[in-house]
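Troubleshooting log. The previous structure file for this entry was overwritten by mistake, so regenerating from the original sequence record. Sequence copied from the archived sheet and checked twice against the printout by T.R.
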Amino acid sequence: MNAVPDALPRTAGALRAAGYEPRPIAREIHDNLLTALKNGEDAWPGIVGFSRTVLPQLERALLAGHDVVLLGERGQGKTRLLRTLAGLLDEWTPVIEGSELGEHPLQPITPASIRRAGELGDDLPVAWRHRSERYTEKLATPDTSVGDLIGDVDPVKVAEGRSLGDPETIHFGLVPRAHRGIVAINELPDLAERIQVALLNVMEERDIQVRGYTLRLPLDVLLVATANPEDYTNRGRIITPLKDRFGAEIRTHYPLDVESEVAVVRQEANLVAEVGEPLLEVLARFVRNLRESTVVDQRSGVSARFAVAAAETVAAAALRRSALTGEEPAVARPVDLDAVPSVLRGKIEFEPGEEGREIEHLVHLLRLAVAETARDRFAGLDLRPLADAVANGHLVATGERVPGKDVLEALPELPVLHEVAQRAGVAADEPAGRIAAAVELALESLFLSRRLAKDSDDATTVYGR
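Regenerated output below.
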């Protein structure tokens, strides 16, 4: 966050003279989004794979001034998308200095701020709030109360001598404190139905009710929420009157193609070693195979976090081998994929009756992904010279203690190896580990097409006749 610019007005009078008129949150987002669209700016940084599906729907909803609920399985980027909404707010907005709800200096709404504005007039002090402070997020948990969201009587203020009938004894909850901002509620169906009822007035009449107080606060908030389709009908549900108040319900989805899946992994994964594009494609196809498999419970979904965690696991395996062998740089090879099924099987829910066969299914789908990637990368390339070389006695050993140069030294000089490296995006003068990763992918494809044999133990894999 940058420092507040010195040139900004510091009193209500100066603010009025500078033309800072109150503007509703929906109009503010509408104007800023429209400007971004006209200027060709990216209003959704970091959002991958939604440009032709989800984002146009969301943009229409925001231009219409609607509250929005995003509906989709776990790990589809719903929360990430909601957090980018803060970027559509003005960078700085004026508030009454010291006000509890961040009210506009020219439009106070609480009794205390109205009284101060009347007493001080144009001398009312003004502070400035950054847009990052105007986005409020709440995870809907079963123990969330009406007081948490809306507010409740503050016993400390009552103990100070104020009467229970005084509206200034109220301690405001999360929603009123987000006045002139965005309120995001994650997993909305997990809120108890009686708590959801408390949001009805906020969404339609834009006011709040606290324990029978006659208090009408014209709140100005944009309410957005996320929900899982399974939660929608089973574990919890959004009550019908609340669903009716959302102007737009938008379905999210997993990446629609391998390129988008790879882009998500590249963006989100914290890789401690090099993981080349071919291996990322393998992991992307692996995740897509899981999402299409009949043995996986598709109601729970296969999160994009699975692909991210898989890439991080593969990178960690490469870094470990680098530490054991002294090879630099640490580069992931297809042999590192063996670490994925056992480490990540707990992130997948299988259909009933598949107990005990989880690793078997994961290994099978991972091999399919390797075969698909190799077929795509090496299409039209004749790998027979490589297969013949291995079959004629040039056995190739790889594993967690085998550096890339040993893999390459096990093979004779073959022109096809240069082609293999090129197809994997590796130049001939690059480190041995990168070239070995490409060669291993070709060897694995020959094994999967039953043109080579493979013998594996705990630490070493040998390709042979």
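The chain has a mean pLDDT of 90. Archived copy saved in two places this time.
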